[in-house]
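User: Working on a comparison across species. This one is GDSL esterase/lipase from Triticum turgidum subsp. durum. Can you predict its structure so I can line it up against the others?
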Amino acid sequence: MRAAVAFLLAAVLCFGGGRAASASPDFDYPAAFNFGDSNSDTGGRIAAGFEPMPPPYGSTFFGAPSGRFSDGRLILDFLMDAMDMPFLNAYLDSLGAPNFRAGVNFAQAGCSITPASATSVSPFSFGLQIKQFFAFKEKVTRLLSQGDRYRRYIPQLDYFSKGLYMFDIGQNDLAGQFYSRTEDQVIASIPTILLEFETGLKTLYDQGARKFWIHNTGPLGCLPQNIALFGKDPTQLDELHCVAKHNRAAKIFNLQLHALCTKLRGQFAGANITYIDIYSIKYALIGNYSRYGMQTRVNHILLLPRKPSIKKSFGPFRISYQ
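Assistant: Here's the predicted structure for GDSL esterase/lipase from Triticum turgidum subsp. durum:
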């Protein structure tokens, strides 16, 4: 597993794709500001009080649940570590005197790029996360004007223009639609999703953001939950036994996201936009799992809450409700 983590981190750092990505990227940033979903949520959803997070979450690194939907660290954590920066605290987490001097994390598990609806898993859509960012910036400005009392806990004002703005979002916009829509309908919605994303990026740029680090979406069809629910027909699976239609939609989303990044490089004067091909990195990791210390491709998914002590099998997956 350590080899898998090393591969993933090296791939992210060296093969970002697009201008500004290189084998030795310059990671000299005073702060980072992250927007996203469960792939980079470091405690936002739990701090909002949506649900409990009992073990085994956090068990392999933190020794206890850490607010991450993982038993250990997230890609975001490894990136922060690679930049010699502390892990980002969630914007909503006020317990334990969190330090926001090196940035803040607005990511929320279950959120989407498009505005939340009555059926959304999380109300904290991309647009709302941006509003939280501006509320954060406004409060930082006010606190700094009061003297040195809070300076060790919050970013300096120039950090907002010099900092790295990170994005890992869009997975839920696609995956959620497959429960009620056809593949063609999901694909047809992608331009609308990305228009909302573009609007958010432009808003941040207009307010001084210049360094953008954008992850594309991963292979949705390889998520255990999607394989369990949509992968019962073997003819609908790809060569890695992932759900083909989900992955096709993800690829089309990523092609259009890449085109958007290329367009914005021409429009955002003085900006640096790095596009990270997370899809290819994760798909290669899944396809070559044995090289990185894993004995099976996927063999377990743990779903927490609701009904206690219920175990159910979906093909190769064991679902445990605790």
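For your comparison, note: DSSP finds eleven helices and eight strands in the chain.

User: Helpful, thanks.
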